[in-house]
Amino acid sequence: MEQIKHLFTKYEEDISRDMPWNVYPRPSLVRDSFYNLNGSWDFAVTKEGDMPEYNQKILVPFAPESRLSGICAEIPSGSVMHYRRGFSLPKEFIRKRVILHFGAVDTIAEVILNGKIIGVHEGGYLPFCFDITDAICEKNELYIRVRDNLDKKYPYGKQTKKRGGMWYTPVSGIWQTVWIESVPENYVSAIEIDTDMNSAKIKVFGGAQSKKLTIEETGDVFEFIDDDVTVSPSIIRRWSPEAPNLYNFTLESGEDTVKGYFALRKISVREIAGIKRLCLNDEPYLFNGLLDQGYFPDGIFLPATEKGFEDDIRMAKSLGFNTLRKHIKVEPEIFYNLCDRLGIVVFQDMVNNGGYSFILDTALPTVGLKRMPDALKNTNQEARKIFEREMLATIKHTNKFPSVLYYTVFNEGWGQFSADKMYEIAKKAAPTRIIDATSGWFTRKKSDVDSRHVYFKPVKIKKVGDRPIVISEFGGYSHRVSGHLATEDNYGYKLYDTIEDFRDGFINLYEKEILPLIPKGISALIYTQVSDVEDETNGLMTYDRQVIKPDADTTKEVMKRLSDSIKLTEN
């Protein structure tokens, strides 16, 4: 792996080395039971079949490739990562059942507690848990054995062993919080929420038969039997990026009490003046956003503290953007909760598996070959089943967050197969969201939007069909800020030597190319990107988040003009 220069973020100053990320990790379902297992663990890397010698310490939850982990080394293919730590739970902590949670582990994790195999989990981006009640004792030894060979049958996103350009340092092992909670015998294991502009449909999994839900903001009380309830608050306050109104609630079910929240909002497609538009709460709305890859120079997949996520969102809003496209990565719940609270829409990508061809997937489409049958792509049947499974799990993981309004199934053909069928499956799982089946190119018959990528040439609309137009990637203008570069290489779509030229080019892009196209049909825009990432210097911030490249006042004024222009389309 090519050495990357160490870049430091301000968030590292606030990290707790004893217990990093000591924040409750599941804001969608909060219980007053939280025992954090982050911190220093014994760590070893061996060949398959060899016994570990624990001669290293790793700082969980940071991946071993990251500097914050204390390891900062590549994990060779064919290796086994061994994690070990002891713990003792306070007696008053234990109720009837004890649940061990992992935010995410890449890719195959075998969990062993006190010599007993608890379970195995496959897939590197989503949370999982095990009931460890029968294995727990006074003094415990927890052992995690992890394999990550970047097997392309599993979702892997932008990870590669040979990083460079738009491909990045791989991440292995534990990369989110490890924690324990204790619950009653009959406990609420999950809550699913779907809302429109006036009500919320809430489905409760587990718990006692009789339940009571109280909305904190209004005092409304809803008592119900079994699992389902539809609630309509007595005071209606809808959610939008401009007014991120949330309803917090307490759910009581037998001996269990949990807290959660929902918001009232709706995304839809309407025909306005003969053009199909995306609408928020039944009004035409320009989803004006940034590509957000979620990479950081300190923890790679995870910032040093949650403030890293928060400040990225605040930066986007401060420049006048209202949307983030979470690009080929799934984040911890805390990220989506911040988007809900701070007010920014999330376009959530699925994480690709399968192969990638520069010629077929990038070069030829860039010069115009943007249609290709996909029935014979990504033909490995096991890989297809894994992608479908992980797609549905991603929807289940993120669907409860009000800010998540849009899902992208395939990006630029990476791992694409049977896009029409995958659209149908995703739409059934998320009927109230927008489904973008093929972002960029290789479109098939079924998708809620006409999703286009435009690089290396002016943004134009030559043809308007029967779907809302989304420019789901464009821009990518590069400016290298001395002293804030991770590598000597450079990757971007148009290079500006000075900050003044970059700012002029950036504003001209929106004023001269984008603004005139809003009346012609653009419903959403995703500029590449939030920050520089390794070789890529096309971010609006440097990779270390130290320098914001655009002029904030000018940018915000231009973005307001864009938003105002779409409101005029209905008149």
Give a description of the structure.
With 571 residues, the protein is an alpha+beta fold. The chain is 16% helix and 32% strand. The chain has 7 helices and 34 strands. Strands 29-28-27-26-25-34-31-30 form an 8-stranded parallel beta sheet. It has a 6-stranded antiparallel beta sheet with strand order 3-2-4-10-7-8, with no helix packed on it. A hairpin with a 5-residue loop joins strand 15 and strand 16. The protein is globular. The N and C termini lie far apart (56 Å). The model has no long low-confidence stretch (mean pLDDT 94).
Just name the CATH architecture of the largest domain: Alpha-Beta Barrel
Largest sheet: 8 strands, parallel
Total beta-strand segments? 34
- Give the strand order of the largest sheet, numbering strands 1, 2, ... along the chain: 29-28-27-26-25-34-31-30
Number of helices: 7
Structural class: alpha+beta
**End-to-end separation:** 56 Å
CATH class of the largest domain: Alpha Beta
Task: Give the CATH superfamily of the largest domain.
Answer: Glycosidases
Strand content: 25-35%
Helix content: 10-25%
Low-confidence stretches: none
